[in-house]
Amino acid sequence: DSGVTQTPKHLITATGQRVTLRCSPRSGDLSVYWYQQSLDQGLQFLIQYYNGEERAKGNILERFSAQQFPDLHSELNLSSLELGDSALYFCASSVGPGTNEQFFGPGTRLTVL
Amino acid sequence: GEDVEQSLFLSVREGDSSVINCTYTDSSSTYLYWYKQEPGAGLQLLTYIFSNMDMKQDQRLTVLLNKKDKHLSLRIADTQTGDSAIYFCAERRERGSQGNLIFGKGTKLSVKP
Questions:
Q1: Chain A contacts of B102, Cβ < 8 Å?
Q2: How far, CA to CA in Å, does A14 sit from each of A19, A79, A80, A84?
Q3: Which residues contact B51 (CB under 8 A, 6 or more apart)?
Q4: Judging by beta carbons within 10 Å of its beta carbon (0-12, 13-18, 19+), is residue B44 exposed, middle or buried?
Q5: Contact predicate A2/A68, CB 8 Å
Q6: If contacts are CB pairs under 8 Å, which of residues 4-23 in chain A contact chain B?
Q7: How far is B61 from A30, CA to CA, in rounded Å?
Q8: Separation between Cα atoms, residue A23 and residue A67, nearest integer Å
Q9: Average pLDDT, stretch A33-47?
Q10: For residue A101, is pLDDT > 90?
Q11: Per-residue confidence at A10, pLDDT binned at 50, 70, 90?
Q12: C-alpha span between A4 and A1 (Å, rounded)
């Protein structure tokens, strides 16, 4: 158990809908990262937050957004969902923004029908 | 190339050594990582190596780094059935004070009794 929690574990929804994925980092970690894992693209970095502020952006679509709240939990919002958004979404956390160790949560499996 | 490359599959017998290879892309990457993903689970950080090291050993795991060839390997001694999983190689690419992890597509290790 990494100490990073993600909810829900599974999510099934329809195209065009909007969903919110939630992540709680390990106690003491200030930085949160979001990744998408799909069969064709592999594991891709989406976005990073540190202490409430966006720190780095990767291959995140404009339909996706995220935020980190004062209690350090983070939410990833996915809107206008398409079939191709079906994937495993992982959250990871680390102590600081440039810390070399990232600890991953168990993931949220999103299925778009 | 731009991608971190790994072979997709490796099959070994229980008790043998496993060697999983990876070629990364950026010679200035500071840290190289090995993560393990068991079925239905998140990514577990196994080990990492700083780019100025050639080798790191941690119990049954040995990481070798050839910086000139941008080649990283993970050797698992006395492989057990519990080692069956997907192993991801990742490099940390620096962007100013930030470092983003770029993952390979993973090597599925099957251990036969």
A1: 45
A2: 10, 11, 9, 12
A3: B29, B30, B31, B32, B65, B67
A4: middle
A5: no
A6: 4
A7: 30
A8: 10
A9: 90
A10: no
A11: very high
A12: 8
Q: Which residue has the tokens 């599925």?
A: B108
In chain B, what residues touch A56 (CB-CB under 8 Å)?
Answer: 95, 98, 100
Disruptive mutation site among B101, B105, B107, B108 for chain A (greatest number of A CBs within 10 Å): B101
CA distance, residue B100 to nearest chain A CA (Å): 7
d(CA B23, CA A68): 34
Residues from chain A contacting residue B39 (CB–CB below 8 Å)? none
pLDDT at A41: 81
First to last CA, chain A: 31
Give the mutation candidate from A29, A89, A90, A100 for the B interface (greatest B CB count, under 10 A).
A100
Amino acid identity, residue B103?
Answer: F
pLDDT in tens, B67-109: 999 999 999 999 999 999 999 999 988 766 566 788 999 999 9
Spatial distance between the Cα atoms of B22 and B89, rounded to a whole number of angstroms = 6
